[in-house]
Specification:
homotrimer; 4-stranded antiparallel β-sheet; 24% helix; 348 residues; Rieske_2Fe-2S_sf (chains A, B, C); Rieske Iron-sulfur Protein; alpha+beta; Naphthalene 1,2-dioxygenase Alpha Subunit, Chain A, domain 1; 2 domains; 7-stranded antiparallel β-sheet
Chain lengths: 348, 348, 348
């Protein structure tokens, strides 16, 4: 159950460097590669000749070539050529709209004619020289919505990430959740607390005292179909918190692009955008490594939670106030799903 | 097909030391831990909040805490607390009756009100300082009843364990099987034979001649739901065999607690209780290692036998006199199953 | 969908040296071993006593003994003996006709009474001292017919085996395919080309110039049920090609015995028979190693092609002229399948 008429992150540019990439997204087996003019293309990963995956082939003169018998496929899904063959009557394969932007390849798995580039959210940090980004990719064996729940309720940090970003004050601070149009925002502010290890390190990087009280914030933004961007940070206590002058704070955006693979698995593109020391690649690497460990801690929990839910499919889960972020996000997803269903039934 | 109203071995105390243990027993996912006063508790391994396995959590102040969002669960399956939440309306999860006795944790996966501690078999050897016990745990991918069959027909030792405890005289000696109430006993006595390697070693440990003829016995006791205890031993030939004076014999009890996990897999708690040199931990370790190897030899046979039976589900297997132990044990199991079915239909 | 009334390669003699071998062929679990007089026997791999696989047993005095409880099984599927048991009433298990010939064990998985040794194809190279053979076995997770397609359309060499036997002239040369009775032959001749690396090496072994133009040929023979024998070679250009005098050429036969295991997996016995330097075991080993690498390159392609076909079962694949070899071979297979269906319906 995932909306198909939406932009999802498919991969990063390094994954299609020099060779095509096969990846299943929203149930569709796709191949990604750089076609004519270096433009990224996405096609069904299925050669119309004998069904071989095109992703096992290669790119020659900016065209995708099947690695089995040399069929040359156009980025529109029409066969261009094949040794000694007339290809005009060959059946087409699906092509998928693609955008390369913000350091990611985005794909629209649904109806091509509805793919509007304007529907891709604007990510200011990804275009500004004041920001740096580092991240990675995990394959997680659970429904992508369990990951949305996870990220829209950060009280789990106290337990799952107790040695890095968790602290009991997260549980104790009230949370406010609201939906504005398609966006869900859930916020938590903690005042006059001691920073947990991850943030002590960030304070140090910013030349701020790490052992003095801080104000800390977490503002999670859900954007359809399944992106979660979390403004996080700490400021020297009493300097205005989230609104403090930059010299008093260390802050960043946790970036989570969650792309369904099947009903019970997804691709998790995680990362962090920061607006301090953006020109320091060693810092980027250090943060990336730390964050990679932290996000790895969620994996076992989510995959075993999925197993439990599959074993007891009839059980209703609780929806507490701390779950409001996930609950409201799922409502937005459900609305998208309903719209797609309705559109299909009108066509049918 | 396993009786649920019965005491099964769930785990050993070392497995719940300092952290909860998740284990599926008779189809139920359970979590085991030491709760208030150090008393072992068993609950459904399913947090009522979001379905996370409670076994991924931890024990704090003798209470189980969910590792995802900090829900504190009582050993009765009622939520005790959760940060910033009123938990009174939270749904309960199942709790399972548990007994810690004889060095094992026993669980009753069925109806709580029928769980009578008196139904736990008495194991005299486990409470006597004259006896020592060593054992281990294997996960075996076959119906637990194939393991019962295996242990109630020791002619397999000649073939599966030919280098340790097997010898052709086992096949050649007649076997007597009888059911007394719920207990099935199958016995075999071999007179004036040469001991196989395992028993030569035991004779040596007891200061007895290892190369002279012995009388050997095997008395297998099946006790419901699926425990098999085997009195085994050798005595210097002509001294009375099973009834010989202790100074002439080396004997022990092979202990097998067989706990279904699913219809086609089980937990196999194997071990040996001996009443010679009980204070010698090195001897315990040596026997444990030898026995671990021997019982590992059964695993491939049983798992492939299970595969064969699943591939040819309609084939009838033979029931020979040597199989009488398994056949009669299955009859006891079937009687338990019928009683449970009947009780359910009366309720329904 | 595989013909069962046919001779398939089951294994090679070294695989049953000293111990029985369990292998599933055409959906039947079989055990192979050397029985009375060293004659190979094939039986169902299922002990009539308790369903244990007989392949976990051993051979004693030229008879198969079950490794679980010592049942001694005859090569006709009738139990010979069992310790302390009368075995006359034991149910029989299936036995399968077997022939040992040409360095292989051949089995007939279908109706015993139709198993005619005369239906085994004659392989002259396997009986002649002028030829040497080396080969290996791969387990491939795809329908055996995808392997037949692969071998009956060698244009894939240009892509899958580009560094060894592939070259663009294969794609460019016309291919001629014809069916004669049960045999399908697809041929390709390339004149005045430069040999690819594998053939340069072969020319060198034959004392011929490796950098001068050659004529190259590939003549693929499909023989039911699923054998593919490919005459391949190169000759110094202009000396008559395929018909050139032996002193001017290097040639061999690629040998492919393809034995279905399940509907979507098979055993692939690959090898090469050559009629140059037959007494050179180092050369045999070198060729075997090279060929093993080459045939390993097909595996990923075929297994992922199978996954794609299973995911999109309704898609029609193309049948181009280059596919004629596979298409016509499948027609022969389909005819065999139809005959078996018809024979069954007459019986029914």
């Amino acid at each position: 159950m995932f909306p198909k008429n939406a932009w999802y992150v498919a991969c990063t540019p390094d994954e299609i460097e020099g060779k095509p990439l096969g990846r299943q997204i929203c149930g569709e087996k796709m191949v990604f590669y750089r076609g004519p003019g270096g433009k990224v293309a996405a096609l069904e990963d299925f050669c119309p000749h004998r069904g071989a995956p095109l992703s096992l082939g290669f790119v020659r003169d900016e065209q995708l070539v099947c690695g089995y018998h040399g069929l040359e496929m156009g980025c529109d899904g029409k066969t261009i050529s094949m040794p000694l063959q007339r290809v005009r009557g060959f059946p087409c394969i699906k092509s998928f709209p693609v955008i390369e932007r913000y350091g990611f390849i985005w794909v629209w798995p649904g109806e091509k004619e509805k793919a509007d580039p304007a529907k891709l959210h604007h990510l200011a940090w990804a275009e500004s020289p004041d920001w740096a980004y580092g991240g990675g990719l995990y394959h997680i064996k659970c429904d992508y919505r369990l990951m949305v729940d996870n990220l829209m309720d950060l009280t789990h940090e106290t337990y799952v990430h107790s040695t890095s970003i968790g602290q009991k004050e997260i549980d104790e601070a009230p949370v406010i959740t609201k939906t504005e149009g398609d966006e869900v925002v859930t916020s938590r502010f903690m005042e006059n607390i001691i920073a947990p290890p991850f943030w002590k390190q960030a304070l140090r990087f910013n030349g701020l005292p790490e052992d003095e009280p801080v104000d800390r914030w977490q503002i999670c933004h859900f954007l359809p179909p399944s992106h979660v961007l979390i403004e996080v940070g700490v400021a020297v206590a009493g300097k205005g918190g989230y609104n403090a002058d930059p010299q008093y704070k260390a802050s960043s955006i946790v970036v989570d692009f969650i792309t369904p693979e099947t009903e019970t698995s997804h691709w998790y593109f995680w990362g962090m955008a920061r607006n301090f020391k953006p020109q320091d690649p060693e810092l980027t690497a250090a943060i990336r490594e730390g964050q990679g460990k932290i996000f790895g801690e969620d994996r076992e929990m989510l995959e075993k939670q999925q197993e439990n839910i599959l074993k007891y499919p009839d059980r209703k889960l609780l929806m507490l106030n701390i779950d409001a972020g996930g609950v409201q996000s799922r409502r937005v997803i459900d609305r998208y799903l309903a719209e797609e269903r309705e559109a299909r039934s009108l066509v049918g």
